[in-house]
């Protein structure tokens, strides 16, 4: 087990650090202070070949340039509010505060948000379960959000190869919060269409033309959006990709809410979360501004998938959605685990 810290580059005249965690199984995971980003996760496949399952740029310059072209939020922590918000909504926060937006919609916390901040390394745990805790202090009215909010994100690599992400936040005023990680996964194949996805979900949210939830639940059984039987993702070609909010069923903590499997590599990733929803984003293509880490992937044909565990987007504008308000003096917390194994 080990923890190492190296300089990954410079951002706004400040060093960006890369923290590497490794365990006794030879698994290595890397995290960047820029965006508190999950940069890599390398594990051996069924032929004992190492595979990095995180799709992302190879350099800091690649991350930075990406935002000037297509902001994919590669592996970043997004906040204060993940997903899209209707800034013309009826919620008091949105009447009394002007959130940064484009055409009345804010995406992933605004123009800069948490994804484009260089977080500090608050703590390193150098035990048999190594971890890194990143922290960011968001000032009052940053991107239009009320309250000075202090956020920490802890990544832990467990002995069973699980990556655990624990989020916490406090604010000196009532504010809105909804955090997630925006990592792109591929378990070792050219395309996602030959991999398999399980979702413990029987409904997703209908959206408007600008992808704001209407509040209406859409039933998934016996549709192409039904992933309860762990089907292959060949349906992506018919669906033209996914960018949908799936509502997760209530189930015991021991039961995974999401699973992803590659028969080719033998790898399976099981996701346990305390969040009520997941945004599944599986784009038709990824257009890199720089050089990607994984050269074997076909980036023109459904190359990766995001599993963004969170509250439903625009939750504050729908009374039947879970509350997205962090009250002054209260603590926001969220936990999601990504368990990797050879199936």
Describe the structure.
The structure is a single chain. This protein is globular. It contains three helices and 26 strands. The protein is mainly beta and 343 residues long. The chain starts with a strand and ends with a strand. The strands form six sheets. An eight-stranded antiparallel β-sheet has the order 10-11-12-13-26-22-21-17, with no helix packed on it. A hairpin with a 5-residue loop joins strand 12 and strand 13.
Q: Tell me the major beta sheet.
A: 8 strands, antiparallel
Stretches where pLDDT falls below 50 for ≥5 residues? none
Mean pLDDT: 96
Q: Give, in order, the helices and strands.
A: EEEEEEHEEHEEEEEEEEEEEHEEEEEEE
Estimated radius of gyration: 19 Å
Class from helix and strand fractions: mainly beta
User: Which strands sit side by side, in order, in the main sheet?
Assistant: 10-11-12-13-26-22-21-17
Q: Total number of helical segments?
A: 3
In angstroms, what separates the terminal alpha carbons? 24 Å
Report the helical percentage: under 10%
In short:
The protein is mainly beta and 343 residues long. The protein has helices at 60-69, 92-96, 236-239; strands at 2-11, 14-22, 28-32, 37-44, 50-52, 54-55, 77-78, 84-86, 105-107, 120-125, 131-138, 149-157, 163-171, 175-176, 180-181, 184-185, 196-199, 201-207, 213-219, 242-248, 258-261, 267-273, 277-282, 305-310, 325-326, 332-342.
Helix-strand layout with pairing:
Elements: E1 2-11, E2 14-22, E3 28-32, E4 37-44, E5 50-52, E6 54-55, H1 60-69, E7 77-78, E8 84-86, H2 92-96, E9 105-107, E10 120-125, E11 131-138, E12 149-157, E13 163-171, E14 175-176, E15 180-181, E16 184-185, E17 196-199, E18 201-207, E19 213-219, H3 236-239, E20 242-248, E21 258-261, E22 267-273, E23 277-282, E24 305-310, E25 325-326, E26 332-342
């Amino acid at each position: 087990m080990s923890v190492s810290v190296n300089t990954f580059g410079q951002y706004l005249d400040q060093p960006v650090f890369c923290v590497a965690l490794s365990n006794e199984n030879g698994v290595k995971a890397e995290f960047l202070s820029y965006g508190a980003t999950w940069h890599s996760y390398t594990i051996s496949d069924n032929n004992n070949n190492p595979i990095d399952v995180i799709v992302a740029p190879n350099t800091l310059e690649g991350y930075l340039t990406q935002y000037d072209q297509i902001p994919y939020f590669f592996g970043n922590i997004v906040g204060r509010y993940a997903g899209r918000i209707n800034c013309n909504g009826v919620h008091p926060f949105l009447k009394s505060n002007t959130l940064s937006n484009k055409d009345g919609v804010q995406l992933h916390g605004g123009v800069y948000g948490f994804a484009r901040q260089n977080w500090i390394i608050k703590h390193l745990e150098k035990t048999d379960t190594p971890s890194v805790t990143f922290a960011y202090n968001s000032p009052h009215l940053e991107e239009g959000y009320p309250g000075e909010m202090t956020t920490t994100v802890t990544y832990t690599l467990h002995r069973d190869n699980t990556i655990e992400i624990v989020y916490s936040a406090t604010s000196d005023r009532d504010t809105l919060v909804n955090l997630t990680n925006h990592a792109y996964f591929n378990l070792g194949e050219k395309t996602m269409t030959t991999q398999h996805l399980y979702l413990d979900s029987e409904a997703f949210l209908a959206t408007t033309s600008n992808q704001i939830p209407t509040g209406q639940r859409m039933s998934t059984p016996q549709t192409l959006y039904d992933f309860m039987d762990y089907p292959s993702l060949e349906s992506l070609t018919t669906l033209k990709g996914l960018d949908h909010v799936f509502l997760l069923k209530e189930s015991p903590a021991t039961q995974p809410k999401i699973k992803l499997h590659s028969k080719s590599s033998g790898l399976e990733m099981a996701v346990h979360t305390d969040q009520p929803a997941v945004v599944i984003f599986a784009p038709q293509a990824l257009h890199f501004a720089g050089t990607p880490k994984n050269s074997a992937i076909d980036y023109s044909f459904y190359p990766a998938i995001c599993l963004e565990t969170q509250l439903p987007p625009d939750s504050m504008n729908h009374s039947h959605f879970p509350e997205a308000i962090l009250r002054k003096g209260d603590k926001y917390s969220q936990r999601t685990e990504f368990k990797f194994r050879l199936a």
